[in-house]
Amino acid sequence: MIPLSVPNISGNEWTYIKECLDTNWVSSVGSYVTKFEKTLAEYTGAKYAIATSNGTAALHISLQLAGVERGDLIIIPNITFVATANAIKYTGADPVMIDVDSNTWQMDLGLLEEFLQTQTEIREGFSYHKKLNRRISAIVPVHVLGNMCDMDQFIRIAQTYRLIIVEDSTEALGSKFRGKHAGTFGLFGTSSFNGNKIISTGGGGMILTSDEKLATKAKHLTTQAKADPNEYYHDETGYNYRLVNILAAMGVAQMEQLDVFIQRKKEVAQMYKNELSFIQGFKTQEVIEGVEPNHWLFTVKVPHKAELIAYLKSKGVEARSFWVPMNRLPMMEKDLYFTHNDISQDVYRACVSLPCSTSIKNEEVSQVIQFVKDFYSGL
Ligand SMILES: Cc1ncc(COP(=O)(O)O)c(C=O)c1O
């Protein structure tokens, strides 16, 4: 079986985890949690990093601290993993879904601006949806598959309409726009280290921010809001969202290899592109000028997607369909989708992700390429 994207455990993971076990520092306090946070902050250039139990928790806390309140609307791209929308729902807000660009598969910034111009007005320092009379307090750019949109344009729009930026940079650790790391453009950025991400701790996440007060608050909220070092006095409703030391130890070891992982992702993507571009209708994500992606998950738009996935499965190759667009999920408010041509559906219908673990061998990539060629030549 050639898997889609699995963790690459070939560095100091065993050594660091063993140290946690040997010293009994296994839980949510320990030197590796602090070290992992420091490493992430230094790597991305964010001033502060707060480790969490997963990326969804990181998003939830970031949104809450960005001031999102029950009844608010929060803007997201219509193509994302459901966790972006779920974290918004946890705060009592609802997502406004903006259709994606047909080339980059990121939020369509032209459409975003049109939505804000035509459907919102600014009152008392906030944008309001005119028809629904609901505040739009924040916007969540999702750096889908590790790619990014034009962040200069994005920030200009967000500032014009007084929208706080909380980046869902869970897939984009190591991606940059004009040299600046994904996750450092907004008030908050977020990371995920689940099993298929570019680095993995099995499960885990990180909140990035450069605001000291918010960083302190984030740590407080993720650790049950305990406000007294001796007594069990909690000054608000907190969460048990802290990453444990064992997993942070794995994270520290994985971070030592991140640059190598990014390089390998890039090579694998290039191999696929070189060999598969002959397929009629084959299209990869456009990377605009200024973006350096981390090439997290190699995904391609192809004809006969479902049949290709089934064929590859029969050959022992794991390929995966893209996420069903958010507007098509039953818990979303359908009329909060802004689009002209429903590009999301077009992208979803034709996109397939191919095996691209950082540990994949060149012969395995060649094998997948051959299977894909066989499939199309047999049509
Ligand atoms: C775009 C996006 N947002 C949020 C998440 C949530 O991260 P986690 O699985 O660590 O909760 C993920 C990853 O699963 C993701 O891909």
What characteristics describe this protein?
379 residues; alpha/beta; Aspartate Aminotransferase, domain 2; Aspartate Aminotransferase, domain 1; 2 domains; ten-stranded mixed β-sheet; four-stranded antiparallel β-sheet; 17 strands; globular; binds pyridoxal-5'-phosphate
What report would you give on this structure?
With 379 residues, this protein is an alpha/beta fold. It folds into 2 domains: 13-255, Type I PLP-dependent aspartate aminotransferase-like (Major domain) (Aspartate Aminotransferase, domain 2, 3-Layer(aba) Sandwich); 258-377, Aspartate Aminotransferase, domain 1 (Alpha-Beta Complex), CATH 3.90.1150. It is built from 12 helices and 17 strands. Strands 1, 2, 3, 4, 5, 6, 7, 10, 11 and 16 form a 10-stranded mixed β-sheet that branches. A 4-stranded antiparallel β-sheet has the order 12-14-17-15. A 3-stranded antiparallel β-sheet has the order 9-8-13, with no helix packed on it. A hairpin with a 4-residue loop joins strand 5 and strand 6 (134-139). It starts with 12 loop residues before the first helix and ends with a helix. 50% of the residues are buried. It binds pyridoxal-5'-phosphate.
